[in-house]
Design brief:
The complex is a heterodimer.
Chain A: E1 2-7, E2 12-19, E3 23-31, H1 37-41, E4 49-53, E5 57-58, E6 77-79, E7 82-83, H2 96-102, E8 106-109, H3 113-123, E9 126-131, H4 137-146, H5 156-159, E10 165-167, H6 169-175, H7 179-182, E11 194-200, H8 205-213, E12 216-222, H9 227-232, E13 237-240, H10 251-260, E14 266-269, H11 271-279, E15 284-300, E16 306-317, E17 327-333, E18 339-344, E19 349-352, H12 367-380
Parallel strand pairs in A: 3-4, 4-6, 5-7, 6-8, 11-12, 11-13, 13-14, 14-19
Antiparallel strand pairs in A: 1-2, 1-9, 2-8, 3-9, 10-12, 15-16, 15-17, 17-18, 18-19
Helix pairs in contact in A: 10-11
Chain B: E1 7-13, H1 25-39, E2 43-47, E3 63-65, H2 71-84, E4 91-95, H3 100-112, H4 115-119, E5 121-123, H5 128-135, H6 137-146, E6 150-151, E7 154-157, H7 160-170, E8 174-178, E9 188-190, H8 193-206, E10 212-216, E11 222-230, E12 236-244, E13 257-259, H9 266-283, E14 288-296, E15 303-309, H10 314-323, H11 327-335, E16 362-368, E17 389-395, H12 398-408, H13 425-430, H14 436-445, H15 450-457, H16 461-477, H17 487-496, H18 500-506, H19 511-524, E18 530-533, E19 547-551, E20 565-569, H20 580-595, E21 599-604, E22 619-622, H21 627-638, E23 644-647, H22 653-664, H23 674-681, H24 683-693, E24 700-703, H25 706-716, E25 720-724, E26 734-736, H26 739-749, E27 758-762, E28 768-777, E29 781-792, E30 802-804, H27 811-827, E31 831-842, E32 848-856, H28 863-870, H29 874-882, H30 887-890, H31 892-897, E33 907-913, E34 934-940, H32 943-953, E35 963-967, H33 973-985, E36 989-992, H34 994-1002, E37 1008-1009, H35 1020-1025, E38 1031-1034, H36 1042-1055, E39 1059-1060, H37 1063-1078, H38 1086-1089
Parallel strand pairs in B: 1-2, 1-4, 2-3, 4-5, 6-15, 19-22, 20-21, 20-23, 21-22, 35-36, 35-38, 36-37, 38-39
Antiparallel strand pairs in B: 7-10, 8-9, 8-10, 11-12, 11-14, 12-13, 13-16, 14-15, 16-17, 18-19, 24-27, 25-26, 25-27, 28-29, 28-31, 29-30, 30-33, 31-32, 33-34
Helix pairs in contact in B: 1-11, 5-6, 7-8, 14-16, 15-16, 18-19, 20-29, 22-23, 25-26, 32-37, 33-37
Classes of the chains: A alpha/beta, B alpha/beta.
Chain lengths: 381, 1097
Amino acid sequence: MQATLALEDGRIFAGEGYGAPGEALGEVVFNTSLTGYQEIATDPSYAGQIVVMTNPQIGNYGTNEADNEAAKPYIEGLIVREFSPVSSNWRSERVTDEYMERYNVPVLADIDTRALVRHLRTHGVMRGCISTVDSNPQSLIAKARSIPRMDGMDLARVVSTPSPYTFASTDALAETDDPLLLAPSADAKDQPLLHVVAYDFGIKRNILRMLTREGCRVTVVPAQTTADQVMELKPDGVFLSNGPGDPEPVDYAVKAIRQMMGRVPIFGICLGHQLTGLALGGKTYKLKFGHHGGNHPVKNMTNGKVEITAHNHNFAVDPESINANEVKLTHVDLNDNTLEGLRHKSLPLFSVQYHPEAAPGPHDSNYLFHDFRRMMEEWKG
Amino acid sequence: MPRRDDIQKILVIGSGPIVIGQSAEFDYSGTQACKALKQDGYEVVLVNSNPATIMTDPELADRTYIEPLTLAYVEEIICVECAMMPAGSGKFALLPTVGGQTALNLAVELADSGILEKYGVEMIGARLEAIKKAEDRLLFKDAMVRIGLEVSRSVLVNNLRDGLDFAGKIGFPILIRPSFTLGGSGGGIAYNREELMEILARGLDLSPVHECLIEESVLGWKEYELEVMRDLADNVIIVCSIENFDPMGVHTGDSITVAPAQTLTDREYQKMRDAAIAVMREIGVETGGSNVQFAVNPTDGRMTVIEMNPRVSRSSALASKATGFPIAKIAAKLAVGYTLDEIPNDITRMTPACFEPTIDYVVTKIPKWQFEKFPGADDTLGPQMKSVGEAMAIGRTFKESLMKALRSLETGKKTGSEELDPRRLLQRLVTPQPERLNYVRFAFERGMSVRDVARYTGMDPWFLHHVREIAIEQKQMAQHGPENITALQLRRWKRMGFSDERIANEWKLEGHEGVRTVRELRYRHGIRPIYKLVDTCAAEFESHTPYFYSSYDEEDEAPPTAKRKIIILGSGPNRIGQGIEFDYCCCHAAFALKDDGYETIMVNCNPETVSTDYDTSDRLYFEPLTLEDVLAIYEHESAGGAEVGMIVQFGGQTPLNLAQRLRKAGVPIIGTSPESIDLAEDRKQFGKLLEDLSIPQPAGGTATSVEQALAVAERVGYPVLVRPSYVLGGRAMVIAYDAQEVARYMTTAVEYSSDRPVLIDHFLEAAIEVDVDALCDSEDVVIAAIMQHIEEAGIHSGDSSCVLPPVSIRPTTLEVIRDYTRKLARALSVVGLVNLQFAIQRDDEGVDHVFVIEVNPRASRTVPYVSKATGVPLARIASRLMTGRKLRELLPEAAASGKDLDPGAHFYVKSPVFPWGKFPGVDTVLSPEMKSTGEVMGVAANFGEAFAKAQLSAGQQLPSSGTVFFSVNDHDKTAAVRLARRYVELGFQLVATEGTANALEADGMNVERVFKVKEGRPNIVDLIKGERIQLIINTPRGQDTIFDEKAIRRAAVLARVPTITTIAAAHAAAEGIAAMQRHKTTVYSLQQLHPLPAIRS
């Protein structure tokens, strides 16, 4: 099956199509993770995006239920150098090709992905169209240009849960057999359960699992839940999840955060971090080609140590816009000095831009979930 | 934490000679470390016994000691160095982590014996406790259990009984790993009690602490390796993950390995990453690089830790080349206090070294074995490493990198000529040996399923799927031909990684012509490779390091510059006869020509080398050294319009074999012309030249049939030396004493053809052999060195010890040698280096006759040794000569006076190192076929001491007292008497077999008689095993005694008793022993021996 990618600036890549036949439109971004294509595909933060994997061999170990970060893939399309028609791993339940087809994700393979990545690095992320049905460059370019730009788009509302649900350790147990995730953290053992209300802007399952590992019972609520509605649930802490798109239009959540600040401990990740930044009066901006990968060095400014972290963000909080008297900048990306974490100096509130829940990625920053538990315990007194 | 200012001086320990399991990778790591430490302003002191290394170049350290890596010598160095430090200066530190297991073991010895404490030397890079915890199997196991990691069930034993008891409990197969040995030396898999007893006995003996780990076998599990770095602030990063193609059971050094890991889900990979970090912390490796190996059960993911090395390793060299992350350099910086986030990433310049490289290509490493050199050696692969080198290839996909790596190996076999026996298929799949991958492909060609092959081999189905695709595609190829192939199809094959040669072979297009047909067809379709960058970050950031690999993707990232450039062809995977010495020359060419303003371009595929460090040349192409790949690079580089020259005379036989075809394809080869190189190899033409110059050579001829060979042998007179044309390291070279042997050789030993006939020469018995290295600019000749072999002619020069300056050659004879050298260098219009071998035979009247044995108009194995002995960087000068500069400018004094380069007042002895320990049962006799893997140098004020030092460095500790066993052939009896007398004077007792004993007693010496093996017991082997013998002098006597000699040499290897097989070497040993008895330990730094090298660039 022939497949073609057209970028909005007119660049064309022709290759082989796998997964679902048809067409996909989205912002094209690249991810440098060597492992974890399934977690990436199912991360709701990728809604609206076509992902290019820089690792040339993708699909090798198949797919399995436990590695889903959401009920289905959220990427619009996948681009790889070579796509494995077979899977080889004891955990594999379905060949990646079948999995992508089943969830209607077109896969473009056999193109010079490095050339594409260099193009995106030089010219910035851009809109694109993958098609197995249309190979006319002009019409494909036109299609790529037809979709709205990511800037100003509220995608969190789109991917969020329609209604609240709860998530407890039994749910985590049902989903995973990973001893690492199942063993409760040492400090949480034998401690009373804490109640966390988690805003779902596109939440990853592993965040929920990590919270239960820290002895939390989680109520997941829709993106547009108001502060009052949350406070009525009597949470010990509020969690702000990751999610897709531009943080600026998610003003309802910014408002809710402002109302909750100081009333309850808050921990935000990724989009949750950007929303926290906005709530603190800061500004966000779009990065040229974003951070997507599992190898970013982030310096913890509190203890001077470097964590190797998983990243997936196109937007970032401008450190200049943050009031340094109130807020401490706690984490910085060593590659490009992007702000990666902040903590309020007097209120129980902190957030990070990157992904301490990993999945995929290194576990160096797992401690943040533990910090959140401690913050909640202290707040409770 | 910034640089430690309290340290002033750092001692770096190298890894010694190249041996199986410890190769050029430690020259790479040691060189990087020395450079990094010097740049940081430390005074660097280096000790390494291996003169062929770049790290022992005098520029790389403040003081360089080429001395034995033993406690006594290193203590002396520490003592001398301490004395040089004025009061109030900073600390003296020792970096033991860049010199392999040798350096680590030596450092532990230095610490344990209190020497470090005595002189106040601080160990940096790894603490003693950490080394012990990682290296001591029991401590390691306890540590792993403490952090909740699984290890195989095992027990540490120091006797046979305990080993058998444990095996009784857990069953066979069972793994035996001796403690503190390198490359898994002495390890093995036992399938029954008998094998266990044999392997365990050997293992206990080889272990310096007399201890082995007996371990539950995880045969067939998947094997992984993570390269980890940690700094003093406890930042930890994983530089690279490596997955083995061969499952557990085969030593990693003997496995095909792939980076990054291909078949782990993120969850499994992160679990492994967490485990590796936990191991680092628990073992307590505070700074630097380590590797941790894991086994994973493919059916349930159960993971066990196999081992960790608290130092840089072969794998870390591979990981450095695979990712572009310079592990050894960073490890050195971390050892002196820097943290990872303080060190910039060389490649991106903008980002720090504190990150985990991500790669957008696939790297495959394939080991190179040379069992053909060791008839009788067991070629089954197991826990003990047996390969002598490796090739690495980078491709955009696994298939591409695998096929590139395969053609990088230079097996010498014609593509498609593998002999695969269908009846052995199953056995070959099940039992790992060098041809296994060929059999896997063969199995697929015959229709076997991935599932079945996976079951037999234990290899991961994902890898096998790709090999199957290759096999199927290859079958498809045969359906096509150059007439009916589409551009699309051809491009698809090239993109998969097939070579032109492979395609030509499948199309039944013969020879070089056939390959050219495919190439030209490809060009017509515009199908040419492009070059991509290795950048540590998968193109996320801009990078500045021109480190390239080819692929058939779309976008090229290596536009040629407008600068005039020189392409240097490297020497490919290490092998016996073509090793680190050639890499040394290639690096020097790059250094010198870079200084002269050329853009230097290196092509090589050996990940262990300094030449494949991106710092060495201006551009590095990590590519196979085949005509196709080299030509593509030339065409790519010359497209810029700038002047391009190519150097082929530094990389050994590999580039020389390409020279003619490259020249025919229009590549400007600089230096000695390929025609001259060929002339020297061509029997007839060369014979004619010698005749014209009136230079004698041993009578000889060529043959392409048994009849011809016998006729030639008859004409020139027995014994004869027979060998194939165009070989390095004396492959398949033998001395035949009768017609029967010649006939056998011609029918079984070699392949020959009309353009590659067998060469037959009269063999000069009892002659002294001499090696000459000279520089020539086609007019002037400067003789760099005349080296006298210590063994007699007939033993390959690479296997022979030699001494510089010569110790027993008459000045008049030396003059003859010089005269012949000059004449030949000029006649061949040598531009660059030339190596000549002469034999001196003294007739009954005492007159010396000099014969030319061979002339090689290229860099030789002895270039680095001579460079160090004379203080003149020969390869640098030679490369400048190739660009048109003259000796009168570069070495004005020597060029004008005609004098040899001056080694000064000292003696320099080079001695070979053999891999006998790795191949039990193989005969250790020396012959015209080279068998040594590496070399060492001993330097002293007298010949004897220099020889003793070289022997010591080569692992032969000459005894200073005890019993010498003599058994010599009739020819040597007279000489043996004089020799034995010398040993008696030195205080030795004598033991001899019948014939030799008679001769010695007749001269009035006391001799204890001993039976030959065949005669009865107790025989000589019993004495050796009973540790009654301290030195063996046994000269071979031909067919009759071959059995005895083999048994003796074998017992000697096991008992590690030094064995000398020539009278000449036995004399040298006597002088060495005399020197040892006289002297205390003396050490010399190169900088002190040659304070002002003739040329410093």
